[in-house]
């Protein structure tokens, strides 16, 4: 094997390794976004359940603090709508984009879905507090 062939093989291996690394980075970045999305979706499901429960408690005149429950319902609704909006705009088709563009896009999406996750956490916690207070008043 001559030096040119050896150099060509080494360059080819290095290039192949670099392509694999960039694809792995992209896949890992996407997996980070999906992981947070999945956490947020569990909270979103709880947000919808809490909103329905609060609506029912208000309709049945079980809740005495309608202002606080109204604030909780508004927070739940806005968090749910924000998550829905984020999901509709998310696009995992990176055709024609460079590695840097893909990584930047996924970084931005991770930041956005983290914000949605936080909003859902806060809304669910707030509504849980209203629900717990109402249950304690009933008993």
Brief account:
This protein has 139 residues and is an all-alpha fold.
Can you characterise this structure?
With 139 residues, the chain is an all-alpha fold. The chain has one domain. Helix content is 87%, strand content 0%. The chain has three helices and no strands. The protein has helices at residues 3-59, 66-89, 99-138. The relative contact order is 0.15. The model has no long low-confidence stretch (mean pLDDT 86).
Identify the notable features of this structure and list them briefly.
87% helix; mainly alpha
**Gross geometry:** elongated
Report helical residue fraction. Answer: over 70%
Distance between the termini: 86 Å
SS strand fraction: under 5%
Pattern of helices and strands: HHH
CA radius of gyration is 24 Å
Q: Residue-averaged pLDDT, rounded?
A: 86
Poorly predicted runs: none
Strand element count: 0
How are the elements arranged and paired?
Blueprint: H1 3-59, H2 66-89, H3 99-138
Helix pairs in contact: 1-2, 1-3, 2-3
């Amino acid at each position: 094997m001559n030096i040119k062939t050896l150099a060509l093989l080494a360059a080819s291996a290095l290039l192949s390794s670099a392509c694999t690394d960039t694809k792995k980075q992209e896949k890992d970045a996407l997996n980070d976004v999906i992981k947070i999305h999945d956490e947020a979706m569990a909270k979103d499901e709880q947000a919808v359940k809490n909103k329905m429960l609060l609506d029912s408690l208000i309709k049945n005149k079980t809740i005495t603090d309608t202002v606080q429950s109204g604030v909780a319902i508004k927070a739940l609704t806005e968090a749910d709508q924000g998550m829905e909006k984020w999901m509709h705009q998310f696009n995992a088709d990176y055709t024609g984009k460079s590695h840097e563009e893909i990584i930047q896009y996924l970084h931005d999406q991770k930041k956005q879905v983290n914000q949605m996750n936080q909003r859902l956490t806060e809304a669910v916690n707030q509504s849980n507090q209203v629900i717990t207070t109402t249950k304690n008043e009933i008993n």
